[in-house]
């Protein structure tokens, strides 16, 4: 099976101009994902895990290296060098991102956030409404909140909404940046069920988790990051906590 994503010698650093300080984040990172795989990334906080995901999603622009993505619409694309127009289309149609935080337009309700994500994919409003109801019910978001603004939600409610909005699009590539960080055990199970559904449908996933128990029997491969560098974990089979 061909690679859906191939990262070659990726490096990213940050410059604090007011302190005249240069901070390396990740250096010479190379990894790959085949279509339909779920690859996990582990490592200490601040080790550079999220930086790699943000470079793939192009929240950050890498200093060097290539991020080759096999797009359904555009063919083989280097995400490190693609135009903003191409990146915008890929985010709408092919690449999803779930973080611990919910950043949304003001005065947009929870229901509208999920519906709009589906409509972006080209579906009609009736279908979007049906799928929105299914997703919000799955994550047990109280109906009284559906037409409220997420600014009033608790941290756990915002995170569940963020996950629902990304997963309802069933993207070809889904980036998961600590998506279960502030969820209770019941909500984590809901996330795991959806991940398993997406895997069965062929979605390729790259996920960062501190919760190794959550990753049990999900990941095909694991990378560990230390001092900004990635290392392939010794186990090639499904990651377990034993």
From TrEMBL:
<feature type="domain" description="ABC transporter">
    <location>
        <begin position="5"/>
        <end position="242"/>
    </location>
</feature>
<protein>
    <submittedName>
        <fullName>Phosphonate C-P lyase system protein PhnL</fullName>
    </submittedName>
</protein>
<dbReference type="Pfam" id="PF00005">
    <property type="entry name" value="ABC_tran"/>
</dbReference>
<keyword id="KW-0547">Nucleotide-binding</keyword>
<keyword id="KW-0067">ATP-binding</keyword>
<keyword id="KW-0456">Lyase</keyword>
<dbReference type="GO" id="GO:0016829">
    <property type="term" value="F:lyase activity"/>
</dbReference>
<dbReference type="InterPro" id="IPR015854">
    <property type="entry name" value="ABC_transpr_LolD-like"/>
</dbReference>
<dbReference type="InterPro" id="IPR003593">
    <property type="entry name" value="AAA+_ATPase"/>
</dbReference>
<dbReference type="InterPro" id="IPR027417">
    <property type="entry name" value="P-loop_NTPase"/>
</dbReference>
<dbReference type="InterPro" id="IPR003439">
    <property type="entry name" value="ABC_transporter-like_ATP-bd"/>
</dbReference>
């Amino acid at each position: 099976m061909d690679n859906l994503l191939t990262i070659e010698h990726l490096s990213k650093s940050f410059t604090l101009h007011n302190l005249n300080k240069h901070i390396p984040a990740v250096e010479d990172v190379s990894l790959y994902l085949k279509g339909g795989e779920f690859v996990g990334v582990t490592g200490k906080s601040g080790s550079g895990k999220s930086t790699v995901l943000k470079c793939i999603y192009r929240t950050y622009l890498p200093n060097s290296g290539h991020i080759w993505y096999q797009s359904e619409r555009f063919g083989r694309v280097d995400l490190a060098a693609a135009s903003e127009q191409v990146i915008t289309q890929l985010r709408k149609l092919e690449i999803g991102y779930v973080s611990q935080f919910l950043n949304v337009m003001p005065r947009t309700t929870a229901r509208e956030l999920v519906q709009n994500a589906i409509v972006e994919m080209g579906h009609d409003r009736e279908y979007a409404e049906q799928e929105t109801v299914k997703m919000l019910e799955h994550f047990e978001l109280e109906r009284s909140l559906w037409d409220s603004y997420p600014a009033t939600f608790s941290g756990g409610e915002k995170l569940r909404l963020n996950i629902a909005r990304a997963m309802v699009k069933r993207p070809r590539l889904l980036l998961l940046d600590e998506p279960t960080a502030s969820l209770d055990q019941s909500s984590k199970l809901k996330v795991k069920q959806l991940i398993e559904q997406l895997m069965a449908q062929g979605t390729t996933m790259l996920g960062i988790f501190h919760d190794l128990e959550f990753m049990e029997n999900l990941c095909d491969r694991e990378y560990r990051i230390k001092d900004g560098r990635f290392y392939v974990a010794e186990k090639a089979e499904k990651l377990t906590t034993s």
